[in-house]
């Protein structure tokens, strides 16, 4: 019997090339940027602190976390600021804990879509407006002097924060579009502290304010528009029903603004053109029976129903006032008639009433582009019913806010009224890419 130890071991496979792999442990900062943790960076920060231009840094740093995906810089920047502002209503993160977190900010654009190509300036604007007060500044419409004034204002306060959207290439970094919060400003050296959310790639750094301004000007290849910055603040007493805060509901399609934008820009206008409604009731039926719009209303009613256990008595009165104001509009009876005819013999209860209220609120707030294919006389009549002059302050505020949210997102997808860079990838009203 032959011993195993005496057997000749097999020869290793020959001529096999081992695939080379490259591993990155961050990238060195270009010479035009100063590492925050360097001695010079520390001196710049000390001076900014002494000048009173690092007031928001501590709240931001206590909530700072790096992005969890290479394309999540926008989501990460926003979650950091929402946590720094202590914005209420954060979704449940893990266990009972509520915390704003990258992957939970998926109401405007599906998270899988964000992973592929990030979010545009307009999509970020919408997402931010879903949760807090936002001032939007496009770089090509904002002077450098205004940008520096905003830097000083933001960095001398702990209740307003700035997130910039810029081109990395303009800073001599690798990559292109990126979002990050601003943590401090050194007025003597005119340099701002960028708290880079991609900590795996670059550390936080000081950059010239002039350089940052110029880095916001290059056109985004996706939209053909310049980037810019956002000023974010939070008023906890400002309670609203947000169209952006959508959730998926069992037996209903997942609602997202990409699909809704297509419905607003193309599907519903085409149905109005083909069905040629002769009355407002017929036009409202075309719009409100669209599957996505029906799901949107259902999701909103469900979300508000879930919210009622959490809102205070004063907030509940605000919602009740809004509902009552909607029911006093001239458009409400028309929407009620549509509902009664489509539901036939269904009993009319509190849930049905909420459906009619939300449908009316939607019709009052929808962007005009939705109705662009109506006959001129019918369009004129509808605009009369949608006139905000005689609305109560509560209703007018909510209609204007919802209208603004829808316009932000719809016009980001439907580019019929926006001059775009040739070849930009966006859905047009005529269905062309």
UniProtKB/TrEMBL annotation:
It is an enzyme of class 2 (transferase). One of its GO terms (biological process) is phytochelatin biosynthetic process. InterPro entries: Papain-like_cys_pep_sf, PCS-like, PCS_N, PCS_N_sf. Its EC number is 2.3.2.15. Keywords: Cadmium, Metal-binding, Transferase. It comes from the Eukaryota. GO terms for molecular function: glutathione gamma-glutamylcysteinyltransferase activity; metal ion binding. The keyword Coiled coil does not apply. Residues 17-237 form the Peptidase C83 domain. PANTHER family: GLUTATHIONE GAMMA-GLUTAMYLCYSTEINYLTRANSFERASE. This is glutathione gamma-glutamylcysteinyltransferase. It comes from Gigaspora rosea.
